[in-house]
Write a structure and sequence with these properties.
The complex is a heterodimer of chains A (574) and B (198). Chain A is built from 17 helices and no strands. Chain A has 574 residues and is mostly helical. Chain A folds into three domains: 174 residues, Cytochrome c oxidase-like, subunit I domain (Cytochrome C Oxidase, Chain A, Up-down Bundle), CATH 1.20.210.10; 128 residues, no CATH class; 146 residues. The longest helix of chain A has 35 residues. Chain A is globular and about 70 Å long. Classes of the chains: A mainly alpha (574), B mainly alpha (198). Chains A and B meet through helix 5, helix 6, helix 7 and helix 16 of A and helix 1 and helix 5 of B.
């Protein structure tokens, strides 16, 4: 799509450097970089690699469940597969993908030259990456002294007392703990960086009330990371003490409590879902307006809803534990808190719909994924409301209904929005457009595969099929549903393969993008594609939420319409 | 051609934003506070649930002197920062040295207490739930004291060599925030472990 208003004034003052030929030079450049864009790209590359790994694992799982009484993999391997699939997808795909995009976009969007602490940024990336490598090293390293262990096999939430030394021999669980501890440190470091960047590095005029919504969402996400990842770190330290020093935190024989681990884990685990979904909302907030050719509807309501989600999400964790027997009062509290979170989320959905309403919608691949996100997130939210009701949850707890629900959120909402973000920002990152033709193949295949898999996965759940079972008997009536689900998984895999091919192919052969291929409105599109190392030769200054609109339409700038009390300028930028 | 995106209605006047060092340290403190809260919750949750002895009332003594030392070190580190702000390098060194000394006394007090508990009272991290939660909570705090002392010692080293001036006062302030946090955590730990939980 050509730029309609060629007004963006792009400056790249970099003196042309001799190209680096030795791969060692290139590698040295990447390993030692503190540039937020390169670190962001490394985050994304790392996460995409693990996306393929964990996707491959789930294909093995789906082959195993395709027919009853299958023995494609052994039960032990099956346990490792679902543990590694869950752990990898949450900690080494979801988080690094979102932090990679955040790293890349936040400084560009607020008109800064880098993150607040560039070296901390590099440290956070490398320690997270090291955690991921350590997790997979467990396949060969965790035999321990017993010769008893391989990859972790305790499930991604690793309930006690299964993780105690008596039941989890060898070092597999230790690898799981330390990998998560390390990536937790990296996560907190990057979040700290995002907050400090957003608060302290904004370009002149970028008041908090003018921040792009994506940056607002990353800010709230980062605060949630502090409050949520801290407890995970604490719980992992306790588990390490239990396993290595012989303490009794989760040792039920000495009076320790297995339920305490559940609480500690889900105090992290549920906010984590919102930590993953809020950046996806952020992408939607940028992409839907641009392709509807309208400013976002209800900016202040969006910010308020985000902060509201942040607060409420801290008090819903025990809805994962309705079957534990917490008592009527605790159950009621968590039912109501969980239902309450649907209110700010609903506000967001209505705002996106109102943004689409009356707009000149352009169905690019990015927009198609965003629209898919909108509907699928709604359905995911509706099954969420069903599960938030304790009596219903008692019936379907730990069944495939729950698995279908949270995959609807993680795949149908978050992954769809991540794909959308790739199609939208890939031109900025690489300088070339992703192929729209291949993108449409990717979209439709992935959409069909997604619905085959996760729509039909609800049914065996309602029929009582528990999650994490290795196989099932033929007379249960689950076979047909599992066959459909497994077929859909392979359709999705084909879609993802096309996506990866598109990423690589377009990098070399794609159409040259130019600075502003989408005729967009935020500051990252004022730079060249890809941006120079310093982002902005001269720090820009902004007067509204859509600085590029103002630049392209000086006769009718947004600042005429937004609330803009110039006398309050001095006080309100904080 | 102009060299940047100049946008209509751009703001006038000074554009000042909060210090990134202080914002970063506040973020770190929030994250660390979340970790401490979990350990405190575990301590309170397991109070009185130990299957065997000893129990807190039998073995714990109020660490009054060391507590006074640690809490007063908050004042000395604050004095060091304000001395540096007025470019009074000598007083800054003196106050920093006092802070390191007071922190070290606290740490020595904890070491002495642990030695007594382990060898005289037979309480280790494996003994019972009280030992488990006590050593991990107090130990987590003590490890933060050690980190703070190391950083304060580095600051003292620079100060003594005359390499720290007024321009570094914000960095010292960031460090002092961390030290205040370590002290504030001790107020919580002291109240929970030695006052209400005993």
């Amino acid at each position: 799509m050509a730029t309609q208003t060629p007004i963006t004034e792009v400056v790249d003052l970099t003196a042309p450097k001799p190209p680096k030929h030795l791969w060692l030079e290139v590698a040295h450049d990447w390993v030692t970089t503190v540039d937020h864009k390169k670190i962001g790209l490394m985050y994304m590359g790392f996460a995409l690699f693990f996306l393929l790994v964990a996707g491959f694992q789930v294909l093995l799982i789906r082959i195993q469940l395709f027919v009853p009484n299958n023995d494609f993999v052994s039960p032990e391997v099956f346990n490792r597969l679902f543990t590694m699939h869950g752990t990898t997808m949450v900690f080494f795909v979801g988080m690094p993908l979102l932090f990679g995009l955040g790293n890349y976009l936040v400084p560009l969007m607020i008109g800064a030259r880098d993150m607040a602490f560039p070296r901390l940024n590099a440290f956070s990336f490398w320690i997270s990456a090291f955690g991921g490598i350590l997790l997979y090293f467990s396949y060969i390293g965790s035999d321990g002294l017993y010769g008893a262990g391989s990859a972790p096999n305790v499930g991604w939430f690793a309930y006690a007392p299964l993780t105690s030394p008596a039941f989890s021999r060898g070092n597999s669980t230790d690898y799981w703990i330390i990998a998560l501890l390390l990536t937790g440190i990296g996560t907190i470091g990057t979040s700290l960086n995002i907050v400090a960047t957003t608060i302290s590095m904004r370009c002149p005029g970028m008041k908090m009330s003018r921040l792009p919504l994506l940056v607002w969402l990353y800010l709230v996400t980062a605060f949630m990371v502090f409050i949520a990842v801290g407890p995970l770190t604490a719980a992992q330290i306790m588990l390490l003490f239990d396993r290595f020093l012989g303490s009794h935190f989760f040792d039920t024989q000495a009076g320790g409590s297995a339920v305490l681990w559940m609480h500690f884990f889900w105090i992290f685990g549920h906010p984590e879902v919102y930590i993953l979904v809020l950046p996806a909302f952020g992408f939607a907030n940028e992409i839907i307006p641009v392709f509807s050719r309208k400013a976002i509807f209800g900016y202040p309501a969006m910010v308020a809803a985000t902060v509201g989600i942040g607060f409420i999400s801290m008090s819903v964790w025990a809805h994962h534990m309705f079957t534990v027997g917490m008592g009527a009062n605790a159950n009621t509290f968590f039912v109501l808190a969980t239902m309450a979170i649907a209110v700010p989320t609903g506000i967001k959905i209505f705002n996106w719909l109102a943004t689409l309403w009356g707009g000149q919608i352009r169905f690019t691949v990015a927009m198609m994924f965003a629209i898919g996100f909108l509907f699928q997130f709604l359905i995911a939210g509706l099954t969420g409301i069903m599960l938030s009701s304790a009596p219903f949850d008692w019936q379907v707890h730990n069944t495939y209904f729950v698995v279908a629900h949270f995959h609807y959120v993680l795949v149908g909402a978050i992954l769809f929005m991540i794909f959308s973000a790739f199609y939208y920002w890939y031109p900025k990152m690489s300088g070339r457009m992703l192929s729209e033709r291949l993108g449409k193949w990717h979209f439709w295949l992935f959409l069909i595969g997604f619905h085959l898999t996760f729509d039909f996965m609800h049914i065996p759940g309602l029929l009582g099929m528990p999650r994490r079972i290795y196989t099932y008997e033929a007379d249960r009536g689950w076979m047909i549903w599992n066959m459909i689900v497994s077929t859909g998984a392979f359709v999705q895999a084909v879609g993802v393969t096309i996506f990866v091919y598109n990423l690589i192919h377009s990098y070399f052969k794609g159409e040259i993008a130019g600075a502003d291929p989408w005729d967009a409105w935020t500051l990252e599109w004022t730079t060249t594609s890809p941006p120079p190392a310093y982002n902005f030769a001269k720090i820009p200054s902004v007067g509204s939420r859509r600085p590029l609109w103002d630049l392209k339409h000086p006769e009718d700038p947004d600042s005429n319409y937004e609330f803009n009390d110039s006398t309050a300028d001095e006080e309100s930028y904080r | 051609m102009s060299t940047s995106a100049v946008i209509p209605n751009e703001p006038s006047g000074d554009w000042q934003l909060p210090s990134k060092g202080i914002v970063g340290m506040v973020c770190l403190i929030i994250a660390e506070a979340a970790i401490f809260i979990i350990f405190v919750v575990a301590y309170i949750f397991y109070l009185g649930k130990s299957a065997t002895g000893p129990i807190p009332r039998d073995v714990l003594e109020l660490p009054i002197v060391t507590t006074i030392c640690l809490l007063s070190s908050s004042f000395t580190v604050h004095a060091a920062v304000s001395a540096l702000r007025h470019n009074n390098r000598k007083m800054c060194s003196i106050w920093l040295a006092a802070t390191v000394l007071l922190g070290s006394i606290f740490l020595a007090g904890t070491a002495h207490e642990w030695y007594h508990l382990i060898y005289a009272r037979g309480l280790t991290i494996r003994t019972n739930l009280f030992g488990t939660t006590f050593y991990s909570l107090v130990g987590l705090h003590a490890s933060h004291v050690i980190i703070g002392l190391l950083m304060l010692s580095i600051a003292l080293w620079f100060s003594l060599r005359g390499e720290m001036g007024e321009e570094h006062s914000e960095k010292l302030e960031v460090l002092s925030l961390y030290w205040h946090f370590v002290d504030a955590v001790w107020v919580i730990v002291f109240s929970v472990v030695y006052v209400f939980g005993r």
